[in-house]
Design goal:
The structure holds two protein chains of two kinds. Helix content of chain A is about 65%, strand content about 10%. Chain A is α+β, with helices and mostly antiparallel strands. Chain B has five helices and seven strands, in the order αβββαβαβαββα. Chain B is globular. The N and C termini of chain B lie far apart (about 75 Å). The chains are: A alpha+beta, B alpha/beta.
Chain lengths: ~650, ~180
């Protein structure tokens, strides 16, 4: 029954999306108030039905209903309850339903927060979101229905992929989707603004918090994914330039660019046409990512099952959404009036540089990801593009971003004095360089230019960000008073920039000075790595709910002090007969000690991989600090509803239709 | 209407066309021209030892596997334990072609994860890979006693591929003169 209920509510949700995607748009163009309002209610109803639908799929998993094909393929009665629930989005059908449900959640949010948006604008936003929901709903229903029954009913299920039976992996997809789909809001705002000629600073101000929230989720999702790859795959790596990873990274880069150009649009009315285009790009790349991951046009370690009908369907959807929006852009953008003027040395210019670099980085990743496909299509041969391409293209594009991010905050809008800027930085620059050289020389090798430049850039970014904060604080008499006087969005920006620096420092040091070794160890043996002694204490059998494992215990000592006791497992999952290594990690801010059990050589001897990873935590810590910065910005007074209503009503055009209350 | 605002649309349309063609192509599909032909000749050095030569001549005499790999290739790590397993069983000799890699990285990789290869040819600029029609690492070729390519698998090996696809062919080729 549960599956039929889920199927039925999914169809009802689709009906609601149909209403939401048509009536409000027609209503807005013909000024029919009731039609415009219908979108708000249809959107809320859509959320209700989709949550019921998703909820009933979860119930199917909880109840071990193996008569549902999707449950039978991805769950098992021995699977712990927590993972049974998470298995709901553990494969294609369920994760697409999650996508649709999250879109409905964002729809609900947008429908509830009207503030001072004019009714026709709000109706158009709802309409655009409704059309996207309609496309996704049809996709789920026609090509990826998770509620299909299976006859005859198997006794037990095929179990969830062991790689996904992990805490990080259960929350990674929802977070990433919140980000992906969250970008649909700012996309819909942009298209609605194009349709209704509403491209003003109010539109930019409304778009910013939505973009920020989506960006926070995206940052969190990517950070989680990278952390998961690090500890779960057992290779000690944290980023592989895999097509699926690239698919999440491109929207992140473009939405980061969008955040910055929105700032210029809101504050100065600059780059309007460009900002709209970025909003379209950001969501288009999310959709493209979904296409790449789900269609199987590219091979990837994530190796999702591919299905040509699904691929064609998403491609058509992609064509309609992106092609449609770019057509609207081509028709409407020439009418946008760019009113701002700015000098060569100004924050606008620097934001433009930031945008060009970030978008070029995203484009180069897109190129690298699609290049094998393009060559193949042109019958020019088949190639694969690996990490060497990405690192050699990406690093030079990002270096100026790191150098300029902090400096840009020191430069005023419109026109700034270069000599004043240089005067501010004349001591700071050399100090950072000396500090970078000194730190590299003391802790690592001074002739290692990669570490030296990375570290110096990180220090420079922190220093310039803090200088900008200090410049503002010292306008007040007392430090605390000055700090409290700052807007949270300024503090947020400073925090996020520091987060990037922390990330960068983590990357250069862990890439440069990680050590690893693979050794054969018998019980009682020990091995030395980077000044630590790893001793193999013993091995025993462990039985988990749906796996059996060998658990090896290691103690790590440094000199005479014991640093950690590490327990690493080699698991065999009962159903899928997969071997999985559970690495054991002793985390620390300055170093991670990482042990992964390899294969048995004989009864007593095992091959063991040990890693020493200095400062690797900074990579994810940097991600979390960026998120915290985003969060600080989003709670800024400026974006609070009451404030938005007041400020927007001042700039709102007079002829907008009466507001719904 | 200004032309420059049409550029994004035009770029997107071109991209869509490629994606549409891409849908029809299977990235794992085997291009067949080399099958049944003698393996393209190469004369390279052993990746572990720059002074040791390795050429197509070494591959003749028995039915062998030739696995194309690189230290930067993620899927290669995925299939690596399976290759190690296969090498341990001793049923077939595995040769490697180390594709577009550096000697240092490749050696480090083999030391860290184990070396299933009898020997690996070092092909830093990928010329041999191009001759062999390699488009994505990893790829695995089955050669018969005369050094003729008889089968090709694209993408990471799995236990099932080895048991059901590669080993039966190898056993059959052993029976041939």
């Amino acid at each position: 029954m549960m599956a039929e209920f889920g199927h039925f509510t999914l169809i009802l949700a689709l009906m609601m999306a149909l209403i939401q995607g048509t009536l409000p748009l027609i209503g807005a163009s013909r000024n029919i108030k009731s039609w415009m309002l219908s979108g708000l209610y249809a959107g809320r109803a859509q959320f209700l039905f989709l949550s019921l639908s998703f909820g009933s799929l979860i119930c199917c998993f909880i109840q071990n209903d193996f008569s549902v094909l999707y449950v039978a393929e991805h769950s098992n009665s021995d699977l712990p309850l927590y993972y049974r629930i998470a298995a709901t989005w553990g494969a294609h059908e369920g994760s697409m339903l999650l996508w649709a449900t999250i879109l409905a959640f964002w729809t609900l949010m947008v429908s509830s927060i009207q503030g001072s948006l004019s009714l026709d604008f709000h109706a158009r936003v709802m309409g655009i979101m409704g059309l996207i929901s309609l496309g996704m709903g049809l996709f789920v229903l026609l090509t990826s229905n998770p509620f299909t029954r299976l006859v005859p009913v198997p006794l037990d299920g095929h179990d969830l992929n062991p790689l996904l039976q992990d805490f990080g992996m259960t929350i990674h997809p929802p977070m990433l989707y919140m980000g992906y789909v969250g970008l649909s809001v700012v996309f819909s705002f942009a298209i609605a603004a194009l349709l209704g000629n509403h491209l003003d600073s109010a539109w930019a101000r409304w778009s910013r918090p939505w973009t920020l929230i989506a960006w926070i989720f995206l940052t969190f999702g990517i950070t989680l994914g990278s952390w998961w790859a690090y500890y779960e795959l057992g290779w000690g790596g944290w980023w592989f330039w895999d097509p699926v990873e690239n698919a999440s990274f491109m929207p992140w880069l473009v939405s980061t660019a969008l955040l910055h150009s929105l700032a210029a649009t809101e504050k100065r009315g600059a780059f309007k046409a460009w900002t709209v285009l970025l909003a379209i790009f950001a969501f288009s790349l999310s959709l493209l990512g979904t296409f790449l991951v789900r269609s199987g046009v590219l091979t990837s370690v994530h190796a999702f099952a591919s299905d040509p009908t699904r691929g064609s369907f998403i491609l058509v959807l992609l064509g309609l959404v992106v092609g449609g929006s770019l057509t609207i852009y081509a028709l409407r953008a020439p009418k946008i009036r760019e009113i701002s003027e700015y000098a060569l040395v100004s924050r606008e210019s620097l934001l433009l540089v930031n945008n060009v670099l970030l978008v070029s980085a995203a484009a180069s990743i897109l190129l690298g990801t699609l290049y094998p496909l393009v060559l193949d299509a042109l019958k020019l041969g088949k190639i694969s593009v690996g990490a060497p391409y990405f690192t050699s293209v990406f690093a030079p594009l990002m270096a100026p971003v790191f150098l300029l991010a902090g400096v840009a905050t020191l430069v005023g809008w419109r026109e700034a004095s270069l000599s004043k800027l240089l005067r501010q930085l004349r001591y700071l620059g050399p100090t950072c360089l000396i500090l970078g050289i000194a730190l590299t020389a003391v802790f690592w090798q001074v002739d290692d230019l990669k570490t030296l430049s990375g570290l110096t850039m990180g220090i420079w970014l922190v220093a310039t960000s803090l200088l900008s904060l200090w410049n503002r604080i010292r306008l007040r008499k007392r430090f605390v008073e000055g700090l409290l006087a700052q807007s949270t969005s300024f503090l947020g920006m400073t925090t996020a920039h520091i987060g990037i620096a922390v990330f960068l420092i983590g990357v250069v040091i862990s890439n440069g000075y990680s050590q690893e070794s693979v050794v054969r160890l018998a019980i009682g043996d020990s091995t030395d790595l980077a000044g630590y002694t790893f001793t193999f204490r013993g091995i025993e059998d462990v039985v988990g709910p749906n796996y059996k494992a060998k658990e090896a215990t290691f103690t790590v000592t440094r000199g005479s002090s014991e640093e950690a006791v590490l327990r690493t497992e080699k698991r065999i999952y009962k159903v899928q007969r997969n071997n999985m290594t559970e690495a054991a990690i002793s985390p620390g801010l300055t170093r991670d000690l990482y042990v992964a059990l390899g294969d048995p050589i004989d009864q007593q001897t095992w091959s063991v991989r040990v890693y020493y990873k200095p400062f690797v935590r900074l990579i994810w810590l940097g991600g979390l600090i960026m998120m915290a910065g985003g969060f600080l910005s989003v709670i800024d007074k400026r974006y609070r509803l009451s404030h938005l209503i007041r400020s927007v009503s001042k700039t709102q055009t007079l002829q907008s239709p009466p507001r719904h209350s | 209407m200004k032309i420059r605002f049409l550029i994004p649309l035009a770029v997107f349309l071109v991209m869509t066309a490629f994606l549409a063609i891409g849908l029809k192509l299977d990235p794992r599909e085997v291009p067949s021209p080399l099958i049944g032909k003698e393996a393209p000749k190469f004369s390279l050095t052993d990746v572990m030892d720059a002074s040791k030569a390795m050429s197509t001549y070494d591959l003749k005499g028995d039915a062998v596997l030739v696995n194309v790999w690189a230290s930067w290739c993620v899927s290669c790590r995925q299939e690596h334990p399976i290759l190690i397993d296969l090498a341990k069983r001793g049923e077939v000799t595995i040769y490697g072609i180390n594709y577009k890699d550096t000697r240092e990285e490749a050696q480090k990789w083999l030391r860290s994860y184990g070396n299933p290869y009898h020997s690996s040819a070092f092909d830093p600029n990928g010329h041999t890979g191009i001759d062999w029609g390699v488009y994505g690492v990893p790829e695995t070729f089955v050669l018969d006693k005369q050094g003729v390519i008889r089968h090709k698998h694209t993408g990471p090996l799995t236990q099932a591929v080895i048991e059901d696809e590669l080993l039966p062919i190898i056993r059959k080729l052993r029976g041939e003169p």
